[in-house]
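To illustrate the input format used throughout this study, we show a single complete record. The first block contains the structure-token representation of the backbone; no residue identities are included at this stage. The design step must infer an amino acid for every position from geometry alone.
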């Protein structure tokens, strides 16, 4: 039997090998440990996904989506690649497209943070901005109908990620905790954009037989929160959010409600206040969804404290805060959207730091 790769698969094999080399070159992200005076006996850990080469948690997802497209025979040499994204996934996908020498188109809402748009352009991608009421996924499918490969993060995230292992984020967290005082955390907290991360973590915890519970941190009224209550795959959000990447307007195909143990809804003002609080305690800026995660962690820590429980809570630092310099970190922009986080930040700081 010949071991020669058929010519029509040769480029795909080369591309897959390049993605494997990239994964080997990328060190795992840090797990930052913090103790806070307001919650004695509870260890907080922050998985710094902003440390990836493309600056966000979506680096893992983008690699998985490219591998999934290649291994399913959907992506060919020289073919354009397209996806719908509010920014961070598009940046990561543009980076991988450049690595493989492929044209990339990001279909993004026009309200996307300007720094994210600039990052895609700097990586050689093209941005097509859609106004309110225009479905970005539908427009991406139209571009795919013209010959591009649709990576479809919202439709494929939960199946493209290997939740049993292969250094997925859940496996990474558990391995990094092995020598810590609480190697099996009480909670892991993440948001839900595509649903891929929550599905991966929830499945992995069950696969390993771990007692750790999974909480989704969701902007108030987001579709995951609405859908989780009734396990409704047709759920729609009751409110919009200023936090990009999570709080989806409708339930996505990758939302796996049954692997999630709790959902904590966070008001936008508290997400933004917690985002700014992260900068003061960690020394660098992270985005709004990281603030949502911190606020949910504090909610869970208060419940643990009330029940006399000790242990650890793990959450994700999802992307770099510099991407939001003109939006969530801009006081004038917040004021124009009716948000003043000063009081909430003081309250959260007092609770966390016991000041």
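Output of the design step:
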């Amino acid at each position: 039997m010949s071991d020669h790769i058929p010519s029509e698969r040769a480029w795909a094999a080369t591309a897959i090998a390049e993605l494997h080399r990239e994964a080997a070159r990328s060190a795992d992200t840090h797990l930052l440990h913090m103790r806070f005076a307001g919650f004695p006996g509870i260890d907080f850990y922050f998985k710094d996904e902003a440390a990836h080469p493309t600056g966000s948690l979506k680096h893992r997802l983008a690699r998985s989506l490219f591998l999934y497209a290649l291994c399913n025979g959907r992506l060919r040499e020289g073919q354009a690649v397209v996806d719908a994204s509010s920014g961070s996934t598009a940046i990561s996908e543009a980076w991988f497209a450049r690595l493989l020498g492929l044209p990339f188109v990001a279909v993004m809402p026009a309200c996307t943070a300007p720094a994210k748009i600039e990052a895609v352009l700097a990586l050689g991608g093209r941005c097509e901005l859609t106004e309110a009421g225009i479905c970005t996924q539908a427009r991406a499918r139209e571009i795919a109908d013209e010959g591009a490969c649709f990576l479809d993060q919202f439709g494929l995230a939960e199946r493209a990620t290997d939740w049993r292992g292969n250094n997925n984020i859940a496996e990474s967290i558990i391995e990094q905790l092995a020598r810590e005082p609480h190697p099996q955390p009480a909670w892991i907290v993440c948001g839900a954009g595509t649903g891929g991360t929550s599905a991966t973590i929830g499945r992995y915890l069950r696969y390993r037989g771990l007692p750790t519970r999974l909480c989704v941190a969701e902007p108030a009224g987001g579709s995951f929160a609405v859908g989780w209550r009734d396990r409704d795959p047709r759920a729609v959000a009751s409110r919009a959010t200023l936090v990009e990447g999570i709080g989806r307007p409708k339930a996505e195909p990758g939302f796996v409600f049954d692997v999630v143990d709790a959902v904590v809804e966070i008001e936008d003002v508290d997400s933004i206040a917690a985002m700014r609080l992260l900068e003061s305690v960690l020394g660098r800026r992270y985005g709004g969804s990281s603030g949502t995660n911190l606020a949910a962690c504090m909610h869970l820590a208060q419940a643990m404290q009330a029940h006399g429980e000790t242990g650890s809570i793990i959450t994700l630092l999802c992307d770099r805060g510099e991407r939001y310099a003109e939006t969530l970190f801009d006081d004038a922009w917040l004021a124009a959207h009716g948000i003043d986080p000063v009081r909430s930040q003081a309250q959260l700081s007092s609770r966390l730091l016991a000041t």
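Structural context for interpreting the output: DSSP finds 13 helices and ten strands in the chain. Residues 7-25 form the longest helix (19 residues).
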